[in-house]
Amino acid sequence: MNSVQGLLAASVISIQNSCFIYPACQICFSRLILNSRRFNCLKCGYSGEAKDASYRYRLSLKIADTNDLFDITVFGSCLDPFFGVTAENLQRYVQDFNQLSGGANTELSIRALVQAVEACFIGKRFIFGV
Fold this sequence. Notes:
Layout: E1 7-15, E2 21-24, E3 32-34, E4 38-41, E5 47-49, E6 54-64, E7 69-75, H1 80-83, H2 87-100, H3 106-121, E8 125-129
Antiparallel strand pairs: 1-6, 1-8, 2-6, 3-4, 4-5, 6-7
């Protein structure tokens, strides 16, 4: 699944969604189902305590090369250098900020994060392994 078939030099046109981090199964990397106390992976059955859930980056982009438009999703730790922290730590920072502000600034923190990601990626050219 991690084998690169080719390289594509393209520019980022837009960010497709505002959810850059997801709770990920440590075994199969699928999205976990979280409730207040536990998590469960529907794909492989892995489960545990919600506080022990790990997080992973998922950045969905619309990109363009000289001829075509593509929808592409970039996963995992290759995004750590762009965000400056692991997905685990970014999730923790956002969660701590929201708790310190009493939940009043949740939408504001998400909007600020989206703006920062847009500034980092939109209009920039990258080489994507596809």
